[in-house]
Amino acid sequence: MTREDAPVFVREIIKTSGDMWMKGWAEANGGNISLRLRPEKTGDLSGFAPKTDWIPLEKALPGVAGEKFLVSGTGKFLRNIPLFPEKNVGVIELDAAGAAYRQLWGFEPDGRPTSELEAHLRSHEVIKAASGNVKHAVIHTHAPHLIALTYALALDTPRLTKLLWQSHAECVVGFPEGVEFIPWMMAGSPEIAAATADALLRRNLAVWQFHGVFATGRNLDAAFGLIDMADKAAQIYLMARAAGRVACTLTTDQVARIAANFKVTADPAGLAADTADYFA
Ligand SMILES: [Zn+2]
User: Fold this and answer.
1) In terms of domains, do 106 and 200 share one?
2) Which residues of the chain have pLDDT under 50?
3) Residue 67 in contact with residue 93, Cβ under 8 Å?
4) Of 23, 24, 49, 164, which cross-links 233 as Cys (Cβ 3.0–4.6 Å)?
5) Considering 115, 149, 173, which residue would you say is the last residue of a domain?
6) Are residues 153 and 31 in the same domain?
7) 116, 118, 125, 180: which is the annotated catalytic residue?
8) Distance from first CA to last CA of the chain, Å, rounded?
9) Residues 184 and 255 in one domain
10) Domain limits at 198?
11) Do 193 and 150 share a structural domain?
12) How far is the centre of ligand 1, averaged over its atoms, from the C-alpha of 115 (Å)?
């Protein structure tokens, strides 16, 4: 399969993974991507012969039973997806109970899905239900400015949310529900998978302390765009700090007025957060 004759959903992951590499978010095998496939767009995939037996999941996910997903491969470099998609990504399907998966396509010759598969699938289960079947994409990546914030500052969800809203005037419009802050946990563990799914039930962005970010959206572009916006806000804040004292910032009132102007509801806990020490 070449880039030209790849199905649309494979071309989308080619574009997204290439952009993530160009952004500097995906060093080595860092980052992973999953897309819940829309039957009406992907056509009939029943012609794919299963390549593996059923592999049990840690936790049954009945909310996404029978669904098919395009997923990046474990240990693979996102920057190589455009070069050899069939080696670096694959399609999996869940069984009728959502308790196990099998590989249908890709991961050539003997690869496996991302080590963060549990976090992705648990997130898909909650966002599918919470969004009325609208959200289909989950991205995890190592956006450096958001990671740097977790080293530079003591953060929690309301204060991280407000800091980003105050550091870029369009952020409250892009993510009015705010950004979850998840304190350090072991990557790949059931605990971080559960915490991430719980966070994405409430918000479209979740920052993992000292590690990276998870985002969800209706498609890969939407999830990518949210990370891009949040990371740029973090970059702007860090650039201002590096230039010396942060002399001024958007006020709470200005953030609230921007939200009202664009008819979005800003998370009240974020608006109420005290970020004065970040700008001292
Ligand atoms: Zn990671």
Assistant:
1) no
2) none
3) yes
4) 164
5) 115
6) no
7) 116
8) 55
9) yes
10) 140-280
11) yes
12) 9
Question: 65 and 144: one domain?
Answer: no
Looking at residue 43, its pLDDT comes to 67
pLDDT tens by residue, 169-198: 999 999 999 999 999 999 999 999 999 999
| C-alpha span between 53 and 51 (Å, rounded) | 7
Q: 131 in a domain, yes or no?
A: no
Structure tokens at 155: 């953060």
Are 59 and 97 part of one and the same domain? yes
116 is catalytic: yes
pLDDT of residue 8: 84
pTM of the model: 0.95
40 alpha carbon to ligand 1 midpoint, in Å? 31
**Number of residues assigned to the chain:** 280
CA torsion through residues 242, 184, 192, 173, sign: negative
CATH assignment of the domain containing 176: 3.40.225.10
pLDDT at 3: 58
pLDDT score at 48: 76
| pLDDT given at position 46 | 65
Task: Determine the residue type at 169.
Answer: A
Please tell me the distance between residue 190's alpha carbon and the centre of ligand 1 in angstroms. 15
How far apart are alpha carbons 49 and 36 in whole angstroms?
19
Q: What is the pLDDT of residue 245?
A: 81
Instruction: Determine the distance separating the centroid of ligand 1 and the alpha carbon of 96, expressed in angstroms.
Output: 30
Q: Are 219 and 136 a contacting pair, CB within 8 Å? A: yes
